[in-house]
Amino acid sequence: MAKAKSSTVFFCRNCGYESSKWMGQCPGCKEWNTFVEETVSKSPYQKAASGQGSGYGRGGQNRPSVLSQITIRQEDRISTGIGELDRVLGGGIVQGSLTLVGGDPGIGKSTLLLQVCRNLAAAGHSVLYISGEESLAQIKMRADRIGQFSEKLLLLCETDLNNIAEVIREQKPEAVVIDSIQTMYSENVSAAPGSVSQVRESTGILLQLAKGLGVSVMIVGHVTKEGTVAGPRVLEHMVDAVLYFEGDRHASYRILRGVKNRFGSTDEIGVFEMREQGLVEVLNASEYMLNGRPENASGSVVACTVEGTRPLLVEIQALVCHSSFGIPRRQTTGTDFNRVNLLMAVLEKRSGVQLASCDAYVNITGGMKIQEPAVDLGIVLAVLSSFKNRALSQKLAAFGEVGLSGEVRAVSQARQRVAEAEKLGFETCVVPFVCAEDCRKNSGIEIIGVRTVQEVIDRLF
């Protein structure tokens, strides 16, 4: 048997760009001083994964197929028993899929996947939980807090991918959880676990196992300080779905967002609350996000955004005060900083609101990060309310995109947004004028249609 050839390659720690020589600036991500030297082996990982060579472990040689002769079948999905997770996945776990779950340390990735294992095992599915970070006793302590587990769940503490591949082929489980990919290593690569080469090689082995044996694999990935999965970005390209946990680890809420999904939408989110017994679904996310809202306070406005098919009410807070310095301070949390500056410029230019000498702080409560332009009108109302020190009605909600000319433009799914506000007891909704007529259909709340920002000021202030 021929020995694998080794060579020295330089990788970018930020994006995974590969080069034969060291460079000061990465051509891929334009970051400086991110290249590291690693020794890699030119040994294919297919044999380690399948034992059969190429062809995703089915044996034999793959042959080209005619497009018209390929049959399409509906993917077999397995429900995780957690409705919010099923929503983000697109209906459940697809057989033979490879899913990456990322998030900050301590945010609940391992807890959520252990709950998934518990539900799958209780439904009669064979599950293998592989940990490279915790001992069996530590997993047992965490499992006791979650509840009772079926005998269908098997635990394994291992970091060698060759041994893991043998166990998976021997046990033939329906689902496998890897916690985490940064602790796994392959003997074919001489680099340390967690390095760019090891992460890429380990993911390749798991990909071959998932596709060749029809095993659904879910892997945990650590994130960097920038919020991306540690290791090369090619890791995200190799998997079928990428899920990210958002939210403050010290707060009780968690938001699970799909940023890639080959079997479903990437716009859906799942909302969870961290409790002693684990992560619990938040069925009415809008009501949960508005808990603790101040009464009769200026600078507080409720806006309606849409995440996938789910309308969501969020509170937007603004604090505007006169600056003591020559250059005013602007700060945002949960929304785009440049977008807020743009909206304040529109208010000053189109409506004569003197904000150039004011500090401004804008915050979207609940830990949400919203980029949708539909919250523009909510931000404008919050800034105006704080600037004029006049509180708006507690029963008022708003949505709409604001253009550079000061016009209020239409947004999608307007009727669903109004219905969500009506469901939570709101009595008035400020909407773009072009959406007003449609929103009034089958609606029991007052609809105020506005064409421009100046019209908003005239009617509400």
Structure description:
This protein is of the alpha/beta class and 461 residues long. It is built from 13 helices and 23 strands. The chain has a nine-stranded mixed sheet. It has a seven-stranded mixed sheet with strand order 17-18-16-15-19-22-23, sandwiched between helices. It has a three-stranded antiparallel sheet with strand order 2-1-3, with no helix packed on it. A hairpin with a 5-residue loop joins strand 1 and strand 2. Helix 9 crosses helix 10. The chain is globular and about 70 Å long. About 4% of the residues have low confidence.
Descriptors:
3 domains; Ribosomal Protein S5, domain 2; Rossmann fold; nine-stranded mixed beta sheet
CATH architecture of the largest domain: 3-Layer(aba) Sandwich
What's the Cα radius of gyration? 26 Å
Give the integer mean of the pLDDT values. Answer: 86
CATH superfamily of the largest domain: P-loop containing nucleotide triphosphate hydrolases
* Strand arrangement in the largest pleated sheet: 8-7-9-10-6-11-12-13-14
Low-pLDDT stretches are: 44-60
Q: What does the overall shape look like?
A: globular
Residue fraction in strands: 25-35%
What CATH calls the topology of the largest domain is: Rossmann fold
Number of strands: 23
CATH class of the largest domain: Alpha Beta
How many helices?
Answer: 13
Helix coverage percent of residues?
Answer: 25-40%
Task: Give the structural class.
Answer: alpha/beta
Number of domains: 3
